[in-house]
From TrEMBL:
Residue ranges, annotated region (Disordered): 1-21
Domain of life: Eukaryota
Name of the featured protein: KAD8 kinase
Basic and acidic residues bias: start-end ranges: 1-18
Organism expressing this protein natively: Notiomystis cincta
């Protein structure tokens, strides 16, 4: 929620910033930053509610899907996905 709700865009350059992790470099740029309406907290919460209400049905439908931990180096994520597509790891169905 924090990561999404703090995103901002500079309408002049199109550059993206984050109020905590990548703040605008100057007060001038900071003053003109805009937030996308989808990034407001109440809209993010609605999207999360929708996700959590549908995730079980999706997991049941896509039984052969695999879980990707995307909180890693992009190269590691790519290698994992590639390994699942090219040579799937054996697993025991529950």
């Amino acid at each position: 929620l924090e990561r999404l709700s703090q995103r901002r865009t500079d309408p002049v350059t199109g550059e993206r910033y984050h109020t905590t992790f990548r703040p605008a470099p100057t007060p001038e740029i900071q003053a003109r930053l805009r937030q996308n309406p989808k990034d407001q907290e109440e809209n993010i919460e609605k999207r999360l509610e929708m996700y959590y209400s549908n995730v079980k049905a999706l997991e049941d439908f896509y039984q052969d899907a695999f879980y990707v931990n995307a909180d890693q180096d992009p190269y590691v994520v790519f290698e994992f996905i590639e390994s699942c597509i090219i040579k799937p790891l054996p697993y025991k169905k529950i």
